[in-house]
Structures are given as C-alpha cells and as structure tokens.
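Form 7-S
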Amino acid sequence: MNGQQLSSGLAIAVTLACLLSAFGVSVLLTAGVRHWARQWGFLDMPGGHKAHAAPVALGGGVAIVWTFVLIVAAGLVMVMLSDHLPGLAWLAKHKAGVVAKLPSLLVVIGGALILHVVGLIDDVRPMGPLQKLLAQIFVAGLVVFVAGIRAAEVLGTVPSIVLTILWLVGISNSINLLDNADGLCAGVVAIAAAILAISALLVGQIFVPALAWVLAGAALGYLLFNFPPATIFMGDAGSLPLGFLLAVSTVLTTYYNPTLKIEPYGLAAPLFILAVPLYDTISVLVYRYRLGVPLFKGDRRHFSHRLMRKGMTSSAMVLTIYLATATTGLSALLLPWVKWPAAVLLFVQCLCVLSVVAILEGVGGYEKSTR
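Output:
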C-alpha cells in the first residue's frame, strides 16, 4: 500500500479513530486521577526550584500512559476480531501485519510501563539520576535486543545498536527535562507526535501513525488540565514513558526508501521534529556546566524559564515554544522528498528558528544565581 492510498480514506479513519478515542479517554482518566490525587494527598508541593505557589495534584502521567495502553489494547482487539465484525473489513487486511509486529509492540509497551513505574517511584520518593539512567538503558536494551528495533542499520550492527540506545535514552531524558512548565511537555509531545504520524502516513505506513496519533490524543486530553494554570502535573511517571514512546516511534518510521523515491535526507527528520526538546537539553546542560553546578539537578535554567525572565507570561512562553516546535517539525515532512539544495535550506531554516529562540531568551545574560 503506497502513501497516496493512505492519504485518503484510510488515513482519515486511522487519524480520527486513534486521536479522538485517546483524547476522550485521557480527559476522563485525567479528571478521575486528579480527583483521587487531591483526596489522597498525592500532591506536588511548592518549594525549591518549583514555581507553583500551592500544592498541585500529581498523577497526570498515570492518565496519559494508561490511556495509551488501553487504546492500543482496544485497537489490537478490534484488529483480531475484524474478520468477524461488520464494517471492519478495511481493517482485516492489516491483521497479518499487526500480528507480525505484536511481539515488538508488547516489548515497547512493557518498556514504557517499566519507566512509568520508575517515574511513579520517583514522584513519591525522588530517586538519584543514575538510578533512572540505568532504568532507561535497560529499557532501551530491551527494545534493541529483544524487540529488534534499531535505527540506521545501514551503518552496521554495532553502530546501529549504540546509536539506537543513545537516541532512546537521550530523547527520554529530553522530554523528561522539558516537563518544567505548565502545558509545555504535553503540548510539545502532541505536536511532535502529530507531525511524526503525518510523516509516517506520507511514506505509506499505518502502524506507526496509529501509535503516534494515540500518543498525541493522550497528551492533548491531559493538556486540558495542564495548560497554564495547571491543576495536575504528569510527573516523571508521564514524561519518561512519553519520551520513550516518542523516541521509539521515530525509530520505527521509514525515512529512506529508494524504491518510493524517498531521499536519504529524510533520515534527519527526527532531529527536526525534536529540535526544540534537544535544544532545551543541550542549552541547560551547557548552562549548568559553565556555572559549575550539578548537571542533573533540577533548577530554573531551562529556556522556558529564561523566556519568562524576559517578560513573557506563562501562556505566551508555552505558545511560543509550540510555534517553534511546529515550525522545525513541519520541515521534517518535506525532507524525505527533496533534493540536497532544498534539504540544506530546510536545515538552515531549522537553525534560524532555534537562533531566534536563543536571541529571545538572551542566552548571554542569564543570572548565575538562578536555581
């Protein structure tokens, strides 16, 4: 099945079914978890480097992750029963492909749930960065060695394994670090997942777009309660598995296929889609290193905080970063289909967007005392 066919009825059906069902379930679960968290005192208390002045419910990550699991499980059941249910004949033709991918999918979901539990433990009683890093490496190892999911296999087995593990761990941490302001992490993940879904649809995939739309819907449902001013936080229980699932989805997406005239420049698409989270991670680590403070200790040195120090309101800051994410990410949709001059121009455009963000936040004038 080619991308042109997928761009019509099937693409619309997959998009609406996955996005809307995940959004609805996420709204219900987030509301329920927020109520439970307030009753049982599962709250994020103010103080330290945190900006909120009053306790805020935790557990948003529970709603996001279990929305993803439930919707994917429901989708699998529908596929398996599609031969016997009226109106699902269009789905039955994909049954064999889904069955073939099922073992890998179960490993991915299992890995996300491991990180979910690690995040929950950290939300209740903070863990050391090394412990969380080891958990992420372990889960990345499961994806690479058990599920057999690898990036850039053309480079050879060992480079592919190393690159995939570094990518999975790096993006998991980037999304985790991005969860530093109301509405920021969930909104950026939703935008990135939506662009990734469209990118995969354009090259004729259906499995990856379905997962990405579910991820986007789950994040958007939670975002209704997390957009400034937030009434619930996702915590590490949400940000760690969100980053992991997003990273795995980028690895599963096809970016280069000569038979479909898909150019190799598409291999850089994930860097465009996730340019903003990567920029935030690199810039905050550089800041901490220059100031001689612990690299993995939470503070208010993220670029979202720096934008707000320049006078932006919380909502304006979040919307600015959404726009930056969308601008760099949308360029990724063109990369697989253009020749090298256009690819260079798209790369320059991405750098220009990040440079504008750097200028806005005033990189050189950040206060050393900020914690």
